[in-house]
Structure formats: structure tokens, C-alpha cells
Amino acid sequence: MNRLILIKYGELTTKKQNRNLFVNTLYQNIKQILKNYNCIITKNRVRMFITCDEKDIDKIKDKLTNIFGIHSIVICYRVNNNINEISSTALEVAKTFNFKTFKVETNRSNKNFEMNSMEVSSYLGGYLLKNIENIKVDVHNPEYTLKIEIRNDYTYIYASEIKGIGGYPVGVQGKGLLMLSGGIDSPVALYLALKRGINVECIYFESPPHTSLQARLKVEKLVNILTEYTPNIKLHIINFTEIQEAIYKNCNPTYMITIMRRMMYRISEKIAKKNKCHCIINGESIGQVASQTLTSMEVINSVTNFPVIRPVCCLDKLEIIALAKKIKTYETSILPYEDCCTIFLPKHPVINPKLDNCLKEEAKFDYEKLIEECVNQKNTIVISSKETI
What we know:
nine-stranded mixed sheet; alpha/beta; 13 helices
């Protein structure tokens, strides 16, 4: 029997005229992830097939479970479109399982095959009953389902599917810039943006010596974890010290966080445009902290006309934590290293800021010059999945 991996697309099949773009992008993403394996990848509009060394099948299967755009992964057996060959292989496959009840499901896209789907299922069901003792058919609640796909080239036989993570292939929606902190929320936002097909670059604000090297390394580790889902992530590191100190020295303490976030948005927009990103992404969740009330978001967001995507905005903290644990960023996110958003934190930050008050506070120092310095002096690194941090 010839064992190989079959990939089902799921949501990609709804794209009609854009289906080829989505399938081709998924193909390229899989090819990149599997570049170190000896395998052949072929595709058509509804399925993708990977033939590889038998010893690598399980490793490749595990890699595929983290690739967006895949609905399910199947380890299957490929045979010629001949009912005798299909029957004998179906029997061999069924004998590797222990079951008392079963059914056969057939999908016949090859309309030239001499039997229709119902006839194939009935024929194979009878064949299994003859050759395996103590089993019976149960079409409603079987312990075992044998699946047959009769296509134009070959017939594919399998018994189970491994659920993929779905979504769109990374890259089909263009590129976005994610404001990444060391907290729980923004790595989850990165994961969700990738899931919708956005190729993500990250921007991280540090304020040495007020924030530590450990805080930056923590962020780099979070990015490294997320390269499980896309092989390379670009990280732009911004030295935010002078701006943050200027805010601390000149501005009303209750407005410090609001002004700081407005500065971050201004810098993020410039970096996004320089790197041909189409949106800014962040981990803001409505009402979670003072800067994330609707009033605060409105005032902070007013510094830019650039699209801002907030993937976790309507999730509560427990939902975000559950996702963080699922993608394995939670334990790193809770490491106790302060970031820009937690230093110089006022006791009573304003939760309903006024735009006029923000403009008056910002007029107290030359922030435009400081912003240009931040942008010009940024440090950019690329973190790849092969790295260990």
C-alpha cells in the first residue's frame, strides 16, 4: 500500500475566483515549512497531496497542524481506480483497526468510474462483512468509518482525519504591523491575525534602563514561539526612553498613559508605512485597562487614519488566557519583567480623556523630533523558527 498525506482546504473552497491565490499561497507556505524534508507536494483546486519517506510522515503531520489554511490532514492510502484494488486495500486498512460496527462513505468525483458512490459503499460494506468476523454495519453511530475518495487520477482510502487550525494561508491578506508587548494579549492578537491570512511584522517599545534586557529577550522568545505558525517574523525594536522621560517630566500624570499610547501609534504608523504594511494590529481589549475604554481608544486612535485591527477586543481576560495557553505563550507572557506600559504608571490614570487636554499636554515638549529619532534609530531583527532562545 502507498501511504501519503492528503490535505483538505476547508474555508479556502469558498473563495471562488480567488481560490487559486489561496491554494497557491498555502502551497508555498507548506513548501517553506517542509523545505528540510524529502517530499513531493502536488495540488489541485480541492486537495493537496504530500508524498514523503515513510519515516517522516508523523513529523510532517505535526508540522502541518500549525499551518493556517488547512481544514484537515489525512494519512491515506492511494490505489488505482479499480474496484478490486480498492476492495483489497480497504480490507487491509480496516484490519488495522479493532471495531464491531462500521460504515463506508464514498465520495466519487470521477464520474467515469463504473459505480456510483452508493454502489461503491454498498459493495465495500459487503466485502468487509465477508472477510472480517463479528462486525456489522451501523450507518448512524459506527465505531469505525472507512472513507473512499474516487478522483480522476487515483482512489484515496482512509479512516480518520486530523483537524487543522483552519483560517487563511498567511500572506493572502497582505502585511500588518503588530504592537507587541511582553503581556498576554498581544501575542494572542498576533496568532489571530496570522489566522486571518495577515503576514505580521512586530514593533516593540523598550525604555532602557527603565526596562531590562530580560524584558526584550522575553518578547523575542514570544516571537520565537509564534514562528510555529509562520517561519519568519520581523521584529522592529524602538528605543522609547527619551519620549517616555519627556512625558514623565512635562505632562499631567493622569494623562501619561494616554499620551504614551498616542506616541506609540504615531511611531507605529510611520514604521508600518515604511514597511508597506496595510494596518496596525494590537492586543487591546475593551475596558481591560484605563487606556482601553472606548473613550480612551477614541482619543488615542485619533492620531492616525491608518486602519487599526484589534483581534481580542471583544474577548474577556479568561478567553484570552485560554488562547495564550493553547498557543504556548502564556508561561512566557507572565514572566515578571516590566515593559513600557508598566513603568511610570500613575496611581489614577484618566479613563475618559479629552482630546483638547491631550493636545495641551503634548504641546509641552517637541515630540515630533523625538518620534523621528525613534524611527531613524530603530533596530530590526528577523526571528526564524530554527532559532532557540
